Amino acid sequence: MSLFTSKRERKLWIWLLVVVLAIFTTIGLSGTIAYPVDPRLLNHIFFWVFISMVAALFGFAIQKKFSRMELWMLVAIVAVYIMVFLRMGTNAAERTHIFEYSVVSLIMYLILKERETHGKRIGSPALLAILITALIGFLDETIQFFFPKRVFDMIDVGFNAFAG
Known about the structure:
By secondary structure, this protein is an all-alpha fold. It has seven helices and no strands. Helix 5 (92-117) packs across helix 7 and helix 6 (125-144) runs antiparallel to helix 7. The longest helix has 26 residues, at 92-117. The protein is globular, with a radius of gyration of 17 Å. The model has no long low-confidence stretch (mean pLDDT 81).
């Protein structure tokens, strides 16, 4: 009996592992990487990453033939992201949580939908993806507790869950 329901699910799990490992392995480096960079450059980078994510989301929506209601929900989600993004100011660490954990949640959602497509019973893939993403974010914050100059922060846990 295979652990995965399809080759696609296996590939998605590998992508999830790569993303989560990338997040966890940069825990000790985030300040070292971000601080020497000009904040204006970081703002430009975040802007273009955000635009790329929005384009990818809408591309996904078109490919999956979202209903009109789902497309409006996607627009609402993007609007909320923009508002949160603007309220964060120039705090690069907080902004990265939004991007990182949005990707984690999207991949987790695709995994759960793939399992559901192949006959596995999944109650609510979207809700489960959010919960799993929040748990991964909680683990991220817990790991940070053991690094000098890093802290366990419940606000970050909230950002990670929000991104999910």
